[in-house]
């Protein structure tokens, strides 16, 4: 009896275990929600394609200031009143003497005007030479006056046969010789006056004064010693190199009538400095070199820019933006709508039934936050701008803000 009870209990346990081992039927997977994306319509705008280059600013005029006469330097832009050298003994022989030495009133690094006094060389030796030549001229003029009187008397005596022809000829020759001497002395006076003027070294142009290379008290040599430099600052040049492919592209478009020849018309360009956003300065091309550098394949191009604010100075790094097309109607989409995969650049275009398709594109210039699309998108088509990672070609999307 006890054995049968145990058997019955075992059978009940096996039945219960069998019931528990049966698994419930699998539940159906929930449907994936339609992804929501942001979109924008492709628009059109009249634009000009630009290309960017790098260059350096340069002065329109740059002059090395040299001494044109030799002598000891009395004043310079660097010399203070207490350091200025005075001549040992001012010349006071006549009214033409420059015993009052003019003052140099400009400093290094300042803007100067044409004619401003920059340096003063000791004028005394040149004043003395000028006075000596003037004295010789006055003496020669006095001798000429007497010779003319002698010639007049000889002429009267010759009419009365009271003198010989030889004596008359000598009187004529004396007058001619003195006239030649006077012309020579007048040239000497002019030269000495010029040398005296050259002791006052003046700026030949308007511009920015550079560092003083020779200070007061030093001996300077004529046409040899460089005293300083002056560079013009308004307007200012910018030199930049254009690569060979760009030159060829531009010439092709020029032959097709799309763009104008930079050598025959003014082509506007824009400039930005290293610390500036965009290209705030406007100028124009005024020179294209006649050769291409065979070592680099670049062609030198020069632009000119107004610089009335003085923000530009020679030697600065500059970014240049030059036009490469005439104005045309372009298709643009937001730059953030453009994706990149192994096949290249693409956008996702929303079509019928809110299904997207992949479009390979050919990009143009970037204008603000928009990108020019040369091929692949038509005006008015809708492209996905956000959520590209959530969609695949052919999948359905829900436009942001649309009702479910």
Question: Any idea what the shape is?
Answer: elongated
Class of secondary structure makeup: alpha+beta
* Biggest sheet statistics: 6 strands, mixed
The protein's oligomeric status is: single chain
Describe the overall structure.
- It is built from 4 helices and 24 strands.
- A hairpin with a 7-residue loop joins β13 (267-273) and β14 (281-288).
- It is elongated.
- With 404 residues, it is an alpha+beta fold.
- The chain has helices at 2-21, 124-159, 165-198, 244-255; strands spanning 36-41, 43-47, 50-59, 62-66, 71-75, 111-112, 117-121, 200-202, 207-209, 219-220, 226-231, 236-242, 267-273, 281-288, 299-305, 317-323, 328-334, 339-341, 344-350, 356-360, 362-367, 370-375, 382-386, 398-399.
- Residues 90-99 have low confidence and may be disordered.
- Pfam families: Beta-barrel_RND, BSH_RND, HH_MFP_RND, RND-MFP_C.
- Keywords: Coiled coil.
Helix/strand layout:
Blueprint: H1 2-21, E1 36-41, E2 43-47, E3 50-59, E4 62-66, E5 71-75, E6 111-112, E7 117-121, H2 124-159, H3 165-198, E8 200-202, E9 207-209, E10 219-220, E11 226-231, E12 236-242, H4 244-255, E13 267-273, E14 281-288, E15 299-305, E16 317-323, E17 328-334, E18 339-341, E19 344-350, E20 356-360, E21 362-367, E22 370-375, E23 382-386, E24 398-399
Parallel strand pairs: 1-24
Antiparallel strand pairs: 1-23, 2-17, 3-12, 3-16, 4-11, 5-7, 5-10, 6-9, 7-8, 9-11, 12-15, 13-14, 13-16, 14-15, 17-22, 18-19, 19-20, 19-23, 21-22
Helix pairs in contact: 2-3
């Amino acid at each position: 009896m006890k054995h049968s009870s145990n058997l019955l209990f075992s059978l009940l346990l096996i039945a219960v275990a069998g019931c528990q081992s049966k698994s419930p039927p699998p539940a159906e997977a929930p449907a994936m929600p339609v992804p929501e994306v942001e979109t924008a319509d492709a628009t059109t705008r009249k634009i000009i394609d630009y290309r960017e280059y790098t260059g350096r600013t340069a002065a329109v005029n740059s002059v090395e200031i040299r001494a044109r006469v030799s002598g000891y330097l009395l004043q310079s832009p660097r010399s203070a009143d207490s350091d200025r050298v005075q001549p040992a003994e001012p010349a006071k022989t006549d009214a033409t003497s420059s015993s009052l030495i003019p003052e140099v009133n400009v400093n290094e690094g300042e803007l100067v005007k044409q004619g401003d006094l920059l340096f003063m060389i000791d004028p005394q030796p040149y004043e003395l030479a000028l006075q000596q030549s003037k004295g010789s001229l006055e003496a020669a003029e006095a001798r000429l006056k007497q010779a003319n009187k002698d010639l007049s008397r000889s002429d009267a005596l010759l009419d009365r046969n009271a003198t010989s022809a030889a004596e008359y000829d000598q009187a004529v020759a004396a007058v001619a010789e003195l006239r030649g001497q006077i012309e020579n002395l007048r040239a000497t006076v002019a030269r000495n006056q010029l040398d005296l003027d050259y002791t006052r070294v003046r700026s030949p142009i308007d511009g920015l004064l550079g560092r003083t290379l020779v200070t007061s008290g030093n001996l300077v040599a004529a046409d040899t010693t460089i005293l300083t430099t002056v560079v013009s600052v308004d307007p200012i040049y910018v030199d930049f190199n254009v690569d060979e492919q760009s030159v060829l592209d531009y010439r092709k478009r020029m032959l097709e009538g799309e763009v104008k020849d930079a050598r025959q018309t003014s082509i506007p360009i824009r400039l930005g400095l290293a610390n500036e956003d965009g290209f705030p300065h406007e100028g124009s091309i005024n020179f294209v070199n006649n050769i291409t550098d065979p070592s680099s394949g670049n062609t030198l191009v020069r632009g000119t820019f107004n610089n009335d604010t003085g923000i530009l100075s020679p030697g600065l790094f500059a970014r240049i933006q030059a036009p490469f097309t005439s104005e045309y109607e372009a298709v643009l989409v937001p730059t953030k709508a453009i994706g990149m995969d192994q096949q290249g650049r693409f956008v996702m275009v929303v079509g019928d039934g809110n299904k997207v398709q992949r479009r390979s594109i050919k990009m143009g210039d970037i204008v603000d936050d928009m990108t020019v699309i040369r091929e692949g998108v038509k005006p008015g088509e809708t492209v996905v701008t956000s959520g590209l990672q959530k969609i695949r070609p052919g999948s359905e999307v829900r436009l942001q803000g649309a009702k479910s």
